[in-house]
Amino acid sequence: MPFNGLPQGTVPKLERPGPLREQVYQALLELVSSRTLRPGRHLVESELAARLGVSRQPVHEALQRLNAEGWVDLRPAQGAFVHEQTGVETDQLFVVRALLETEGARLAAVGASADGLARLDSLCATGEAAVAADDVEGAVAANATFHACVMELAGNAVLADLAAHVENRVRRYYTPVVHQAWVEHRELIAAIADRDDTRAQQVMRAHTQDTRVRFPPRPVR
Question: 194, exposed or middle or buried, with CB in 10 Å at 0-12, 13-18, 19+?
Answer without folding.
Answer: exposed
